[in-house]
Each structure stands twice: as C-alpha cells, then as structure tokens.
Amino acid sequence: MEPVNIIGAGLAGSEAAWQVARAGVPVILHEMRPLVGTFAHKTGDCAEMVCSNSFRSDDDVMNAVGQLHWEMRAAGGLIMAMADRHRLPAGGALAVDREAFSQAVTETLRAEPLIQIRPGEITDLPADGNWIVATGPLTSDALAGAIRRVTGTEALAFFDAIAPIVHAETIDMSVAWEQSRYDKGESDAERRAYINCPMTRAQYEAFIDALLAAEKTEFREGETAGYFDGCLPIEVMAERGRETLRHGPMKPVGLTNAHKPQEKPHAVVQLRRDNALGTLYNIVGFQTKMKYGAQAQVFRMIPGLENAGFARLGGIHRNSFLNSPTLLDDRMRLRTRPNLRFAGQVTGVEGYVESAAMGLLAGRMAAAEARGTDLAPPPFTTAMGALVNHITGGAEAKTFQPMNVNFGLFPPLDDARGGRRGRKDRYPAYTQRAKDDFTAWLAAR
Ligand SMILES: Cc1cc2nc3c(=O)[nH]c(=O)nc-3n(C[C@H](O)[C@H](O)[C@H](O)COP(=O)(O)OP(=O)(O)OC[C@H]3O[C@@H](n4cnc5c(N)ncnc54)[C@H](O)[C@@H]3O)c2cc1C
Predict the structure, then answer these.
(1) Confidence bin at 110 (pLDDT 50/70/90)
(2) How would you classify residue 372: left for phi > 0, otherwise alpha for psi between -120 and 50, otherwise beta?
(3) Is the pLDDT of residue 95 over 60?
(4) Distance (Å, rounded) from C-alpha 72 to C-alpha 89?
(5) Is the pLDDT of residue 224 over 70?
(6) Domain 165-313: which CATH class?
(7) Which of 29, 82, 284, 367 is such that its CA lies 20 to 30 A from the CA of 261?
(8) How many whole angstroms from 344 Cα to the centroid of ligand 1?
(9) Mean per-residue pLDDT over the chain, rounded
(10) Where are the domains of the chain?
(11) Among 207-211, 219-223, 427-431, whose mean pLDDT is lowest?
C-alpha cells in the first residue's frame, strides 16, 4: 500500500503518524530536527513541548479543551495516552513531565513497525502522493517559501497579531450598540455589523493610563519584530501619544450612541463578528503584547465589557499559519493541490492540544484515503468538529487568526439559558451532546 508521508514530528505530526499506522497504513515521518533546529525547540525528540508543560484543563464537563481531551482519548490518541502516563500533579490541569512525555512519544513511534522516521528537512511541496504537512508555527524558511509559492504570498502569515476575542453573550448591550461606521453596508445586517462601546474622556484617560502601566511580554531571541510596520500593539500606539488610539482604532467618528444619541463619545471601541454563528467578536485593532492577567483587567475597563468572557486573549508571536478558511476543504486538503493535507498549528489552530487534535483528524482522513475510502469530519457539535469547522469555513477569512477550542465555536443549544449565569447549565449540555455525537461518529467508521 502507498505510504502516507508526514512532514514534521511535532504534536500534530506524531499524532497523525500514530493514527495512520493504527489504521494499518504505512507512514514515513519526516523530521528536520536535530539536523536543522528552530529557535524554540531544544531536542530532536518527537512532540517536543516548546514552552509550558501543560495541556490545560482536563475538565471534560465544564471546559471545551477538557472535552477535546476526552475525544482524543476516545479516538485512541497517542498524545493523550503518553500525557496521561507522564502526568504531574497540577490541580484540574493536565500537566506533564515534558522530557519523559516526548521521549515516550518518540519511543512508541519508533517501535511501531508501520512507521519509519526519516531525518531531514523537506524543502518543497511534493506534486503527488498522500502527504500531511504538519510543520507548525516555526515551519522552516525553505518550506514556507514553497507553501507561499503554491498558496500566494498573502495566504501564509509569519506572525499572528491576535486581538482578544469576546463571547458575544457577555457584552452588556444596555451600554454597547450595533452599528457600522457611517451606517455603511448594503443590508441591515451589514449596517449593524459592529458592536460599539463608548468612552467618556475620563474613561479614555484612565484606559490609556492602564495600558501604559500594564505588564508586557518580551519577544524571544530569534523572533523578529518585523511586524511592527503594519500591526502595532495597542500599548505601543498608546506610548506614541495619548491621542494616537483616539485617531486610530478607537476613533469616535461616524457612530451615534443608540442609548444616548445626544452624547458624543470621546472614543469608541469596536468589536467585529468573528464567526458565522455570531457567538464571538474580536476587539478591532487591539493586538497586544500585554500579559494575559493584565489584558483581562484592562479590557474589562471598557464600558460594556465589564463582565466580558474572553474566548481568547490577544498576542503577537512568530507563527506560520495558512488562511485555512479560503485554502482548505473540510477534509483539510489544499483545494488546489488535494494530495497535500495540512494539520496542526500551521492550519490556524493554537495550542498543543488543538494541534494534536488536528493531527489526529488529518491522520485518520489520510489513512481513509490510502484505503480508498473517505472520512467526513466529526459533527461540529463536538470539540474536534467545531474546531475543524471553524478553520475550514466558519471563521471570517479576512480577519482569520489562530484559534483555541472554546464553547463559542459550538452551535448554541435552543433550550439552555444564555449569559454568564447560564453557563452552569449550558456547558454540561454542550459537552454531553459532544460526547454523544463523537461516540456516534467513531462508531460509524
Ligand atoms: C515560542 C513558542 C511558544 C509556545 N508556547 C506554547 C505553550 O506554552 N502552550 C501551547 O499549547 N502552545 C504553545 N506554542 C504553540 C505550539 O508550538 C503548538 O501548540 C504546537 O507545538 C504545535 O504543534 P505542531 O505539531 O503544529 O507544531 P510543532 O510541534 O512545532 O511541530 C512541527 C515540527 O515540524 C518540524 N519541521 C518544520 N519544518 C520542517 C521541514 N521543512 N521539514 C521537516 N520538518 C520540519 C519541526 O522541527 C517540528 O518538529 C508555542 C509556540 C511557540 C513558537
């Protein structure tokens, strides 16, 4: 049988290789480390965790990432099995002994007769064969160049400049209102496409003070700050002058406060819809290097966001990722070159768990193809399905930025209460529905 070739033995590629082999299909796993390094990886092991040693919450009832753990375990995932074996005490989180974990992944893959690990960098995209590209946020320059030649230069980003994303239900609409600047748009929906949060002069001044005082993260060695031209962090804009933001992303022009039409806001923070479901909104132009704790505090000073729940906080990192909503089909294949499937962080998911989950799915899909069958993704009521649906179609392509799994990606339930207090009912209902639907998806194979 023709093998599946996988480029990159990180979190996604290792899981993909395991899934392909479990389906009885041979695998060649190409890994450039230790021959060619990256600024973040330190070893030649598979599935190296480059920073934190945590797979985040293991609560599969109240937490979306915990639900994703559950699905990966149910699907016989290697990453979860090795994480469970090398677990460290960490409260409700799944933290691991990172060295023991990645050594165990490496040894398990090496011991599998259907898997051949082949050292070396792949520098071009193969024209035929069944391939999975799982080269991660630090895809080597040569391969990134090849991807850009195939997808177009705009379609592969080198940095993510992430603005925070808010759960729509947690925005106080008695303060905020829906309106596009100058009421622009053909349809009523377009004229109401943004959510606006007004600020008085005093609120604006206090907000600028908080931005300037907030703790920031530094770039690591090897990360360049070349993004600075097009995409300044808000705190850097604030440092350039107290009025800069009021003339930039917070300008108050073309907007009328629906609750107080006579009162001209001094500044306005705008939020833009981030997914087709309308459950998530990003704060426009608010990419930031503030530390996470500081971000939540500072952003909750914005009128209307006092009780905001964040689906993800902002950040700016070195990160190669595709504009997947325009480039990939729902089988994670490049539309223009369907022999190439993408998996992991390079598809625009964010985090160890999400990357491994996309590897799991891509591996199963590639194995199905090698066997002459087809595998549809899990329904988007599951954590894995919600995530793959988001990156391959549900997300706004124009503003696409890497995404963590979160309940905002799940289709709403008709009968569960909304708002912050409704979470106690809703989250268990989401995760129960996800478990039922994931189990049915697995059983249908
Ligand atoms: C500095 C930094 C810190 C991070 N911190 C965290 C964190 O704390 N928590 C978290 O959840 N996520 C973190 N991430 C994101 C993390 O990288 C991903 O969650 C995860 O590693 C992605 O898995 P992956 O398999 O897609 O990529 P990786 O795990 O990076 O795997 C990609 C593999 O492909 C190989 N490769 C690249 N190009 C080629 C090529 N041309 N030929 C052959 N092999 C190649 C690489 O050597 C690597 O082994 C961080 C990322 C960075 C860059």
Answers:
(1) very high
(2) left
(3) yes
(4) 21
(5) no
(6) mainly beta
(7) 284
(8) 8
(9) 92
(10) 4-160+318-443, 165-313
(11) 219-223
d(CA 311, CA 406): 6
Q: Is 13 among the annotated ligand-binding positions?
A: yes
Tell the residue nearest (CA) to atom 11 of ligand 1.
Answer: 351
Using the mean position of ligand 1's atoms as its centre, give its distance from the Cα of residue 357 in Å: 14
Q: Which of 63-67, 222-226, 235-239 has the highest mean pLDDT?
A: 63-67
pLDDT at 413: 86
Q: Work out whether strand 130-133 and strand 4-7 pair parallel, antiparallel, or are unpaired.
A: parallel
What lies within 8 Å, CB to CB, of 2 at 6+ separation is 129, 130, 370
Write out residues with Cβ below 6 Å of ligand 1: 7-13, 30-33, 38, 40-41, 50-52, 121-122, 134-140, 143, 220, 318, 344-346, 351-352, 355
Pocket test for ligand 1, best of 28, 30, 32 (most atoms within 8 A of CB): 32
- Given pLDDT bands bounded at 50, 70 and 90, which one contains residue 203? very high
- Strand 87-88: give its sheet, edge to edge: 54-57, 93-96, 87-88
CATH for 4-160+318-443, among 3.40.50.80, 1.10.357.10, 3.50.50.60, 3.40.50.2000?
3.50.50.60
- Is the confidence at residue 226, as pLDDT, over 60? no
The answer to the question of whether 9 is labelled as a binding residue is yes
Contact 46, 115 (CB under 8 A): no
Ligand 1: atom nearest CA of 345 is 26
Percent of the chain at pLDDT > 90 equals 78
pLDDT in tens, 262-290: 999 999 999 988 888 889 999 998 989 89
Residue 225, pLDDT score: 46
Atom of ligand 1 nearest to the CA of 56: 11
8 is annotated as contributing to ligand binding? yes
At residue 151, the pLDDT reads 93
How many Å apart are CA 444 and CA 16, to the nearest integer? Answer: 20
